[in-house]
Amino acid sequence: MNKLPLQGRTLALLAVIIPLLALFIYVGLQSGPLAPVAVTVATVESRAVTPALFGIGTVEARYTYKIGPTFAGRVKRLDVHVGDQVKAGQVLGEMDPVDLDDRVRSQGSAFKRAEAVLREAEARQTYAQTQARRYEQLFAVRSTSEEIVTTKRQELQIADAALSAAQEDIARARSDREGLVAQRSNLSLIAPVDGVVAVRDADPGTTIVAGQAVVEIIDPKSLWINVRFDQISAWGLSGGLSARIVLRSRGGQILEGHVLRVEPMADAVTEETLAKVVFNAIPQPLPPVGELAEVTVDLPTLPAAPLIPNTAVRRDGDKVVVWQIVEGDLRITSVKLGASDLDGYVQVREGLKNGDQVVAYSEKTVTVKSRIQVVDRIPGVSE
Amino acid sequence: MISLAGRDIIHGWGKFVFTGIGLGLLIGVTLVMAGVYRGMVDDGKALLDNSGADLWVVQKDTLGPYAESSSLNDDVYRTILAMPGVAQAANVTYLTMQVRKGESDVRTMVVGIAPGALGATPGWPPYLVAGRQITRGHYEAVADIATGFRRGDVLKIRRNRYTVVGLTRRMVSSSGDPMVFIPLKDAQEAQFLKDNDAIWQSRRRTEANPAFNRPGVPGLLDAVIASQSTNAFVNAVLVTLKPDHAPDEVAESIRRWKRLTVYTRAQMEDILVGKLIATSAKQIGMFLVILAIVSAAIVAFIIYSLTMDKIREIAVLKLIGTRNRTIVAMIMQQALALGVIGFVVGKITATFAAPLFPKYVLLMPFDSIAGFFAVLVICVLASIVAIRMALKVDPAEAIGG
Lengths: 383, 401
Hints:
The structure holds 2 protein chains of 2 kinds.
Chain A: H1 3-30, E1 37-43, E2 45-49, E3 52-61, E4 64-67, E5 73-78, E6 85-86, E7 91-95, H2 100-140, H3 146-186, E8 188-190, E9 195-200, E10 207-208, E11 215-218, E12 223-230, E13 242-247, E14 255-262, E15 272-279, E16 292-298, E17 302-309, E18 313-316, E19 319-326, E20 329-334, E21 336-340, E22 345-350, E23 357-362, E24 372-374
Parallel strand pairs in A: 1-24
Antiparallel strand pairs in A: 1-23, 2-17, 3-12, 3-16, 4-11, 5-7, 5-10, 6-9, 7-8, 9-11, 12-15, 13-14, 13-16, 14-15, 17-22, 18-19, 19-20, 21-22
Helix pairs in contact in A: 2-3
Chain B: H1 4-11, H2 13-51, E1 55-58, E2 72-73, H3 76-81, E3 86-101, E4 104-113, E5 130-131, E6 140-144, E7 154-157, E8 160-168, E9 179-183, H4 184-192, H5 196-208, H6 220-228, E10 233-234, E11 236-241, H7 247-258, E12 261-264, H8 265-276, H9 278-309, H10 311-319, H11 324-353, H12 365-392
Parallel strand pairs in B: 4-9, 6-8
Antiparallel strand pairs in B: 1-11, 1-12, 2-10, 3-4, 3-11, 5-8, 6-9, 7-8
Helix pairs in contact in B: 1-11, 2-8, 2-9, 2-11, 2-12, 9-12, 11-12
């Protein structure tokens, strides 16, 4: 009588219990240590690789002319401002001469006085000469004493000496004056080359010590980039290689350039190799000196060799290994790596051959005991 | 012989199954709570695993780099490389900060990884789920997938922009913050780089100091300012050992000769699990205990009330001369069946709920097995109370009521 309803209830109970158990078994297998590790596989293939180096640096001017006085003094006037184009020989400003003009005038007067002294000496010498000659003649006819003749000769010698002293004096006064004039003109601040005023350090009225710069001029044609490459990845860097430059202010724009030279002195503290990279064409408007630049230097393309993605490379103890998939099983394989490029590919010198399959991505650390499940994309990764 | 328990369950199967499911949800929460605790501990261990180091060299007398701040000069690694037994030594920096992407920001631990031979340098993310490892020495990042970043995203750390080139998974700090790996030099800068306003103010302060801004010494001010804005420090040096060298021996020789503090893996685990997350783990542990007690009480109550519902039927059974053993078996079997259903439902809900939690929830198989037996023991103990009631019932109640 109640057999049928009882069976119905049993079925209903089973309908709940069986899916529950199935779900439980599924959960047990798909999570925890029994769950397979999702991995993606990359196939080793031979391709040419173009290694590249990446460094950062700042825009610098190759030549910076720091213009300032050679004596301590005060700036009198300064005609140029930052950004002004200047020509070679152009007067940029002037230091205050203080008493220099007066001293030049004083030297002028001293010169004139020396001229007067010279004229006097000349007059004295002419007179002494005439007198000496006259007394020589008188002495020849014995109408004067020998003592007087001797006195006249001596007077002529003194007059000669006075004349040459006066002549030297005038030369000295001239040189003194010329020296002061030279110093006076040295107070002008003059541009040595064509260029752009980059810095104006002082304004009129400022006191400057000898050697301190008042203005700095750079030659815009000589802009280059002082690039730092980490020494660990600077192998192959040499002059003449082409380079791609991205300035921080022009993010999307790639400028062409080339390595001018690799500096013989590296930075020992930061462990960086320094190189100078120049633009093939100076960008306009000029990038400011000091701007950050990213530089990628392309090295010559290497011959084709087996390549793997760098994500396949793992560490096992002190060995560099990859997880190779052989007939669906994981195998750990030691490899020797060669050159790599910036896109994440690395050459394998030993350990793998073309067509081998290696684990590229995995959702967790793979071990020898792991069960794997090969997928196209690791779950949770969205592109 | 017919199974009284089975018969009874089938009789009221709906009520029974739903009670089981309700119980299961409770057990599920308990399992998740255990998973939260395990997840916290596992976060700490994942941090150590992912660094790939055998030894951590840190500033003398600190518990760095995870539990305390530590700073070392960045050339110390060279002297450590020269120690016997050391295979690799690499600088590393750790900095927990908000990383900005567009309008939003994410709390992350920024790790500065030293450049070095691919696959040999400790500190690098050991595996990726997408993209590639860092190949440029600046302005590239590998981010944990939990940050929500995608390949090609541009992050902002301090004033620099970093392109995400690779994604990884389960790379977290001890507090569960996802990691972002960037090149060491950038990280060193990020760690000590102040905002531009602060730099300007600091320059002005230096300029105002007559000791540094002397008219007679042009260039001194520039030199002082330049020396203020460099950072040659890292937080730790990660060391891997050559085979056949005991970690303790190498650690001792570095401690002795280099006068630095060195931790081995075991000591680091003690620091992370025993010190760093000790109180929060205890907090979760307390919750777990309370939840377990509450669960046990509810299970006991459910079984007790299930038996009480049937007290009249039990009286009838007694009246018709059923043996006590049969009645005991019926109640006990029902309790165990309820426990099994509850556990199965609990395990399923816990497994499906775990990924939804913002922090890592680790469900350990051992916890599940222990939980299973605990549930059975609780059910048996709870049924004993019900059995006592059932055996004490007066058969006359069947007629009386």
